[in-house]
């Protein structure tokens, strides 16, 4: 142990006990005892079933919930932001001005958004384990992929567009479950407030509390061009939940790393997180300046920009958590205990004992290929929607000709509909912006791989990144939907014949990119999964199955209560009010309120003492954005949109002392729909009227 | 020890033996035996004296050398870059086009550059130790400062402008030496090539080799408006040095951290380096975009931009070195050995045993105040030349009224002339650029300290960073030299009466900024210095005085030889040629050569087989830029301008296997002055004609 840490470890106590509200639990394995003890509630099968069928997953990585029988979906503004931006034009900026469909006919279809509803969970661990038994590396990866593709394809059946099946790797490889979803691919925007109030406080307030955001939007799923009828939904309870009341959050937390080994955490701490932070910090600066160049530049770049700022804050919080000697010591202690347990038992030692070292070795490969992999395969060298489209059609031409089991994952039958929807989206692409972002990323490609790297030479030749980017963007036809459609449908022949400069670029790098992906999948990912499976088995042996798996962007339930916390010795109360927003208002972005709010305040219709945002102890993570907060009666009392800054360490461990979910109060949703936005019809619909 | 590292340590050998060429030695303590053994040369007193008197230190953090009796100074282009940029205008871009003074009368005075020549070294350790004996924390810092100020002030005498005295803290606090310099404050530009060849390959090639850069410039020091006569200088030997030949580098390496404790290295690895890397990555992106907005924007921002890119590469290399388990294990082993040695001896243990833990505790303070200190006192919250000027005059008004010993360091008598020269520089300030950089940094101030920090509220009020920046820049008169002069000379009364918005801004934050500085100086720096002094004493007890101190931007000599290295198993030859430059040329920046080079090649006057750049094993670090490479006869055979990428780890240790200094060959200097630039007169002057 190093000096500073040794000194700290000797000085500080580790108050890590009492994880009462810990866990993002799968719905088939809820911790009944812990829930009863912690919040005095044991859900029955009907409750669980209702929760499952009323929860929604957005294809873009967010959560949501069904809130009316007519397919109304409540989620965050920032979860629908991409759609809102794509529906905006230089003349009608729905991000800035908000949107309300006066009638259902006026609801606007999102160009590339799908919503899934979980229908069934099946444990397929035995099948995957049988298929991969005794295999390692490439053979393991191949066998696993083939089995998963077969399971997904069989489950999907026909018609493919309405059903979606995914095999989920739980416990980092300890269990495999098949999740079957109903897929809604016609999603329309019903309501969005102005971004000034949806994201009031902007990046400075992001991940902070007290908070004052109406980070909500209302979507509606359609089938056969009519609002979909849904059997199960959550009604909204405008009274919300009182301090101390039990709260449940159902949603799709994206990813946690609580079960990783120390070697993996070190890789994150020393390589992946700092390297990515540097890269995206630089891009943030670039886009920040780009956005000052005009109102249209600001508008066009803003979605990427917010995504980058949000990601940066998340990763900074994660890095700080990993650099905290207390956290690292705690994780190390857990690993040491588990390894000691394994090593004490000859059978366990033989079966699982080498798993940690195998994973440690894979980290060295991960380190060695890090930038080549990120730049050429991971997309950091080519920030361009045209490039993405070119790679998709290029690879689709090859992959779709293969048997399902042998394709790259994203081209599997089960995933093709979503891929197609994205490729054939009507969302606008902005050539000048493309030039700027592509030129920027090509500079990074050259920097991170060196000017002498064969792929850099192949891409840039004797030209500057700016020249290359301009030539590509000026020469491409991929901005036309018809062109993309022809290439998608024309298959290999059409793609082979294409001389589109982006197709040619994608073709140039594809060999190298695929090779890197293969190395990563066979020598890193497969090794990690196989050995994490062993570690999970060891953990089950030690602790039984009363453990929850790391988050995987699949449906989870967390329980907790409305509760503040102590920050630097001072109590933080759990609620803010609408009135508090006006106190924080400065008139300058991001602390400027929209006109509609002043109007409502000034005409006296706005209830300033209405609770606005609140915190609860529920264990959540990115991907839970848009999740409903429900009470024991499965009524909506809030809408998750953030965590406090302490929640970011939740990637690695849950600390009930200070980790808090941040939500919009249900009453604020109802109140502002009625008094600020003239959207009483929607408020009524959510109230079940 | 953590898992990945444990695995590595068990797997790899640590081939750390044979540091033959290691060390940046002070001229009064050269390692005669090691030099004789390593390069077959023991310098005599005359040689050392000549080296001392022919070496030059540039006030901006670079090195140089006197190369003629008429005060000609050879240094890098990037060392004179600031001056060249300040002498440029939108119409005459000397950075782009280069500059040659056809006559001495045409040489252009640099607005804010001074050159120092070391005259005498005196050991004053006993005096400083006596003054600080038994003191700790604030008392230690105060006593040390007072003693140093007194020593410097006495030494400086009158006239103050031609003499400069600095007490240098060696061995991180183990010794104190008084360095007396002759100060030249009239420095003029005689020659600079086009930046396209001075920095050929740009950021991508920076810190790499093979390399093809004419990173040189020629300055001349003046006294009484005439070229200064200097008694000692290095003649240029166009033949250079052969492979394997002994080379000596004399110069001013800025800073190394080889003697730091593990706790300090951990602070650098976990906090300072990653945090600064993120901040400057973002600023790099911002300026990169700014520079695309027009030719003038590109020109105005380029000096800052290159500085940031260079700093980033340096710190990335340093972070990678610290994240290398081999290096960390090596450093840890050294510390463990020294601590064991101390702990075995009761007297040593009593005197020095607690030093490491004291330093570790200070790192926690350093961590706690990190961003407040950097933002409010370190300048990261206020990227503005106006702000710098405002703070200087504000503080000068207070500080100059105090006794010399009680002032902030930079306002001590010995340092005032340089401060005044900077403040009253005629270099242009660009208001639009100021607005952009200030607005950017105010956004960071708010982000890093939070919108609720009292200083953020005081600075921004209810406005956006952009609004505040524009109001300040539009309202200030600090762009006028006369205004700055009046405030500098008018003292406290003039400053108190000023309502200049930048003065008001500086006034607003000064209390908080000074308080943070005091905490840092008393609770971090003083603790580190005091205890590093103990550790140095322990090291002297273990190893004798045959050790060199960490770099301190004071004159050092390193020895070595012209020699390539192995990179990934392949040999890198030590020389490149002028002809090779044309092979690497692409026509696109930063791989585009200036027209002058094509002309010289095409008319046959350029010798393409002339060696251009070369590497040697000399141990150098940033600050050595501009250093002469000399042979045993004290003739110039090269001009240091860079290190290879492996040299960046040199901040923490020297690895002769792969750490290389990168220099311009003396023959390439002579050749191109004559054939490309028509500057035969200067080439002759350097040859001693």
Low-confidence stretches of chain A: 1-19
Class from secondary-structure proportions of chain A: alpha+beta
Count of helical stretches of chain A: 26
Instruction: Classify the fold: give the CATH topology of the largest domain in chain A.
Output: Thrombin, subunit H
Number of strands of chain A: 21
Q: Which CATH architecture of the largest domain in chain A? A: Beta Barrel
Number of domains of chain A: 2
Under CATH at level 1, the class of the largest domain in chain A stands as Mainly Beta
Largest sheet properties of chain A = 11 strands, antiparallel
Output mean pLDDT of chain A.
93
Gyration radius over CA of chain A: 25 Å
Report strand % of chain A.
15-25%
Question: Percent of residues of chain A in helical segments?
Answer: 40-55%
Q: How does the overall form of chain A come out from the CA principal axes?
A: globular
**Main interface pair?**
A-B, 64 and 64 residues
Distance between the termini of chain A: 63 Å
């Amino acid at each position: 142990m190093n000096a500073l840490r040794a000194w700290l470890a000797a000085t500080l106590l580790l108050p890590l006990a009492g994880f009462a509200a810990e866990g993002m639990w799968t719905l088939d394995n809820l911790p009944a005892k812990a829930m009863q003890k912690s919040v005095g509630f044991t859900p029955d099968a009907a409750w669980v079933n209702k929760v499952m069928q009323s929860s929604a997953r957005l294809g873009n990585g967010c959560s949501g919930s069904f809130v009316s029988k007519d397919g109304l979906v409540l989620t965050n503004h920032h979860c629908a932001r991409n759609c809102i931006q794509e529906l905006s034009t230089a003349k009608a900026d729905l991000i800035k001005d908000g949107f309300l469909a006066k009638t259902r006919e006026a609801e606007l279809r999102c160009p590339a958004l799908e919503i899934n509803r979980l229908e069934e969970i099946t444990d397929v661990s035995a099948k995957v384990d049988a298929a991969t038994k005794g295999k390692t590396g490439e053979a393991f990866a191949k066998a696993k992929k083939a089995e998963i593709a077969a399971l997904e394809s069989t489950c999907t059946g026909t018609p493919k567009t309405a059903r979606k099946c995914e095999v989920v790797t739980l416990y980092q490889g300890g269990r495999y479950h098949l999740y079957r979803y109903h897929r809604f691919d016609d999603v329309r925007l019903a309501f969005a407030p102005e971004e000034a109030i949806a994201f009031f406080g902007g990046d400075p307030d992001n991940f902070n509390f007290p908070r004052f955001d109406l980070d909500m939007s209302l979507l509606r799923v359609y089938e056969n061009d009519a609002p979909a009828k849904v059997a199960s939904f959550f009604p909204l309870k405008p009274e919300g939940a009182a301090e101390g009341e039990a709260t449940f959050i159902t949603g799709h937390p994206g990813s946690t790393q609580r079960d990783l080994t120390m070697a993996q955490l070190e890789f994150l701490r020393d390589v992946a997180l700092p390297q990515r932070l540097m890269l995206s910090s630089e891009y943030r600066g670039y886009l920040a300046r780009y956005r000052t160049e005009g109102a249209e530049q600001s508008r066009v770049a803003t979605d990427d920009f917010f995504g980058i700022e949000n990601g940066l804050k998340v990763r900074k919080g994660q890095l700080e958590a990993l650099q905290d000697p207390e956290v690292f010591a705690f994780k190390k202690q857990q690993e040491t205990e588990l390894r000691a347990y394994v090593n004490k038992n000859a059978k366990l030692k033989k079966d699982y004992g080498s798993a940690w070292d195998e994973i440690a070795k894979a980290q060295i490969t991960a380190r060695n290929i890090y930038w080549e992999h990120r730049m050429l395969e991971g997309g950091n060298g080519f920030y361009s929607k045209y490039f993405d489209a070119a790679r998709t059609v290029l690879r689709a031409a090859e992959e779709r000709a293969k048997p399902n089991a042998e394709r790259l994952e994203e081209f599997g039958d089960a995933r093709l509909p979503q891929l197609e929807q994205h490729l054939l989206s009507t969302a606008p692409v902005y050539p000048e912006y493309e030039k700027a972002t592509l030129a920027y990323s090509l500079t990074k490609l050259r920097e991170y791989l060196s000017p002498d790297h064969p792929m850099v030479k192949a891409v840039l030749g004797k030209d500057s990144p700016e020249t290359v980017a301009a030539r590509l963007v000026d020469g491409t036809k991929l901005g036309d939907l018809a062109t993309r459609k022809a290439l998608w449908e024309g298959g290999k022949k059409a793609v082979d014949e294409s001389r589109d400069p982006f197709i040619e670029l994608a073709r140039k790098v594809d060999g190298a990119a695929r090779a890197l992906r293969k190395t990563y999948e066979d020598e890193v990912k497969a090794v990690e999964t196989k050995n994490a499976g062993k570690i999970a088995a060891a953990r089950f042996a030690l602790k039984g199955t009363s453990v929850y798996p790391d988050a995987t962007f699949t449906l989870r339930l967390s329980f907790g209560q409305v509760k503040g916390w102590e920050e630097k010795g001072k109590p933080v109360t759990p609620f803010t009010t609408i009135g508090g927003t006006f106190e924080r208002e400065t008139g300058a972005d991001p602390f400027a309120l929209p006109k509609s709010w002043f109007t409502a305040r000034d005409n006296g219709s706005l209830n300033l003492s209405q609770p606005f945002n609140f915190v609860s102890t529920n264990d959540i993570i990115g991907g839970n954005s848009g999740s409903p907060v429900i009470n024991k009666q499965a009524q909506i009392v809030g809408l998750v949109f953030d965590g406090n800054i302490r929640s970011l360490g939740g990637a690695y461990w849950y600390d009930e002392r200070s980790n808090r979910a941040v939500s919009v109060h249900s009453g604020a949703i109802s109140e502002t729909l009625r008094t600020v936005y003239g959207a009483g019809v929607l408020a009524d619909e959510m109230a079940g009227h």
